[in-house]
Write a structure and sequence with these properties.
single chain, mainly alpha, 4 helices, about 80% helix, elongated
């Protein structure tokens, strides 16, 4: 039975969190803020993305990143593949939940699609970075 290196998993989860939130921050300031503002203005609602909501979301991405990296580290095969598959599963659940809620609130499909796409890019980039950080100490064939 292989020993779990929790320090490495937590560190790679922290890296996952940093990369994911960096990608989201770039997208937010580049185009997502405008997409959300237009989307909620069209339905006459205020933006749900307050400073408090952002803070809570960033805090929640820490255990999310650690869980994805723990799954990736536990796989016998490629750490990269495990991390991406775990992130894809999380992305699907979050997308279905956010999409269902957003449709029920009459938010534009464009906003939902952009949000989902940015989440997917962020999660894949974060998972690849986290898996990269776990490469030391593993046999080279495990990727």
């Amino acid at each position: 039975m292989r020993r779990t290196d929790w320090r490495r998993i937590v560190a790679s989860g922290a890296l996952w969190t940093l990369v994911y939130n960096f990608v989201w921050g770039l997208a937010w300031f580049a185009f997502m803020r405008q997409q959300w503002e237009e989307g909620v203005a069209a339905i006459g609602r205020p933006s749900p993305w307050t400073a408090e909501v952002w803070f809570v979301w960033v805090v929640l991405t820490v255990p999310l990143g650690v869980a994805i990296m723990a799954y990736a580290a536990s796989r016998v095969g490629s750490t990269y593949r495990g991390a991406v598959w775990a992130a894809a599963a999380v992305w699907l659940v979050l997308t279905l939940a956010m999409g269902g809620y957003s449709v029920s609130q009459a938010l534009s499909i464009r906003v939902i699609a952009w949000d989902s796409g940015v989440n997917l890019v962020g999660m894949v980039a974060a998972s690849l970075a986290g898996a990269w950080s776990q490469r030391e100490g593993r046999p080279a064939s495990n990727g």
